[in-house]
Amino acid sequence: MAETSSRLAIETDDLTKRFGGKTAVDHLTLRIPVGTTFGFIGPNGAGKTTTIKMLMGMLRMNGGQARVLGIDVSTDPARMKQRVGYVPELHFIYRWMRVTEVIGFCRALYDQWNDRLCAEVLKLFELDPNKKVKHLSKGMVVKLALLLAIAHEPEVLILDEPTSGLDPLIREEFLDSVLRTICERQRTVLFSSHTLSDVQRMADTIGIVYEGRLLAECATEELLVGTKRVRAVLRDGATPGEPPAGTIWQRFERREWLLTVRGFSPDTVAYLKAKYPVDSVEVFDLGLEDVFKDFVKGRRASA
Amino acid sequence: MIKALLWKDYRVNLWLLTLAVALLIGPPLCAAALNLHGQLTIGSAPRAWADLLVLTAPFSLAAQLLTIVMLGANAFAAERADRSAEFLAYLPPSRWANVASKAIFAIGVCVFVWGAGLMTIYVVAPQVGVVSADLVEFRDGLLPTLAASSVMLFGVAWLGSTFLSSHTFATGLGIAGPLALLGVLQLWHYYFAPSGFELGYWYRALCWPLGLAAFVAGTVYYVRRVEP
Amino acid sequence: MHYGALLRRLPISIDPNSHVPIYQQIVDHIRRSVAAGVYRPGEPIPSLRQLALELLVNPNTVQRAYEQLEREGLIQARRGLGMFVTENGAVSALTKSQAAVYSAFTEGIRAGKAARMPAQRIRTTFDRAWDDTNRGATEES
Fold first, then answer.
1. Which domain holds residue C106?
2. What is the pTM of this model?
3. C8 φ, ψ to 5°?
4. What is the largest CA-CA distance in chain A?
5. How far is A143 from chain B (nearest CA, A)?
6. Structural domains for chain A
7. Which residues of B touch A90 (CB under 8 A)?
8. Cis peptide, bond prior to residue C11, ω within 30 of zero
9. Total domain count, chain C
10. Structure confidence by residue, pLDDT tens digits, A72-102
């Protein structure tokens, strides 16, 4: 089903954005192959939304370039948008329009539109066609936005914190719909989210962003299986020094040296046992939330 | 695609279109009502209906200055104020398509309003035999000034609308345009060209190119801008 | 490990917050299901798309799980029909399940040693756990 094509759905090179003196996105380089799902995680203000807005041609870049489906977003955004479905974090669909009017409006703007799919999803989402957007609840607006994004059968779906503030039921409906579109065809999905469980479910590759920089970009399983927490209990008087290769975070307290090591292997334990007087070395698996937090904490500590 | 955009712009600016129509038919209706009242209560001779229609046209055109400046001001700023511009921004239409639709609608309404007014004064009036010194005075005097001012008001308000987020500010900017021009000309008159300087002539002569330049500048700025 | 839940067919659920990768959770669950006889040799397991939508996970993840199970010889693809449990699948599943139990025990023993428990204490702790589990199972059934 998912042949990793050599074609790239999304690529950025040294993408940079500055707001006044602050660098929101710092030479970000991304490569997202066609047919994969990329999860973009990072603390608030890390630059995820800024990056996505630049990809959608809604924010001027200060440096670097971005291409979606091979199309340069700064030179030919209109052509790119025909093939991309986007769901933003904040919605500003014309509040005076009724649901049918919004659908009719968007339908006229896209070259291709699947009426059958649109009708199906409209029914599935239980959206009242005659209701005005201003009378829709938040969850309904998000569902409408997703409907608009998938009805024109885009090759790329870009979702910016799509499920934030939604109740678990609507979140499940949303994920289900996104999954169905992934299953239909070779669709590429880029989504940023704070709900790490969603990212762990859906993403083939995860990118951890912090202060506009990519701290890590690798396959979800690799990140989870390869990143481990190591607990080394040192003998009295011993203090830690040079940590093993791949350490992204560490803390020493009362003889206990905790480390989070990326790319963990038996060599890591061997290194610790050889270099330091250890009483015991234990290895723990980590969930995505811990991995993410340790990456960020580690970067903060070294900054 | 343009049809959909035009429909959208029509709905967004519907209140302005309504205002334009109201200012078009309102004055004659009021005059007619007063006329009837005069007939019924004071017993004065009624004025011909044609007279009423034609003689309120100048007022209508003058009042439409308001509509015209707001049409320019509302073009982009309205969608920026409620942020629906950010929704439109991720949809396929190019900036050129957006501008074209807004320009067609706004200028269309202006042309409609002026067309109706000019038709009334130049075509209907002679046809129905309305002869009035006031009308002639208006035709030769105030009318060209109103036309020139309309162009300037629209152009500068349009320019303001392309970078402001409030159509009120854009309206203010639009109004400031002709006023600033008048001010500059007045200063010029006092300090550089004391005699033989026809303020009115120069005002009318400069409004047109400045108004058009502002319109073009605003259009180009919007097309090159990336942010919604 | 929730063996009690094994005896139910679908819906299975995965823990998206777990440190165990999702594909591994799927592999483990299907293996345990086969070992417990929920899916017998020759019977189909849910299709890729079906399971992906059921669990709300990326279909690539399910594919990876199925590929691993296929490599282990537990399941086999039948063209156009989906994935089926192989004849010796049950046996291999049982072996693997037993290996998983062995790992769980060694982990427990290591934890006990790290807590500086003497060997005898570790054994009595196992006996106590055995008794408690059996009592619990009796109450359930």
1. 1-141
2. 0.86
3. -90, 145
4. 74
5. 15
6. 2-211 (3.40.50.300), 223-302 (3.30.70)
7. 83, 86
8. yes
9. 1
10. 999 999 999 999 999 999 999 999 999 999 9
